[in-house]
Amino acid sequence: MARILIVDDSPTEMYKLTGMLEKHGHQVLKAENGGNGVALARQEKPDAVLMDIVMPGLNGFQATRQLSKSPETSDIPVIIITTKDQDTDKVWGKRQGAKDYLTKPVDEETLIATLNKVLAG
Q1: pTM given for the model
Q2: What percent of the chain is helix, strand and coil (3-state, nearest 5)?
Q3: CA-to-CA distance for 6 and 24, rounded, in angstroms?
Q4: CA–CA dist 53, 56 (Å, integer)
Q5: CATH homologous superfamily for 3-120?
Q6: Residue 15 and residue 57 in contact, taking contact as beta carbons nearer than 8 Å
Q7: Cα–Cα distance between 71 and 26 in angstroms, integer?
Q8: pLDDT tens, residue by residue, 38-70
């Protein structure tokens, strides 16, 4: 299965998402903020990234932009998963390079379907 990097500063969200992914056979990498997430993505080259937006330091929009603009990580699909549900946030997230945008709380079926879609290209 795929190696998925979760970038989220909430231990609760990290726990929930990890459980959903591992249940479907995925290997999970974890980073608790955008800066660490970008560094880990460059180092580990995961198959996809699940990115929160509201985090201390480098936020999810900034981290997504860095990943999608860098030649070494631009082929890694980023799915934003956040509580920010305004249309402007969704448009901005896609403009930063996100392949998809989900709002919390995300259900398992939607998460796995979205993940399968971006992994397939």
Answers
A1: 0.97
A2: 45, 20, 35
A3: 15
A4: 10
A5: Response regulator (3.40.50.2300)
A6: no
A7: 25
A8: 999 999 999 999 999 999 999 999 999 999 999
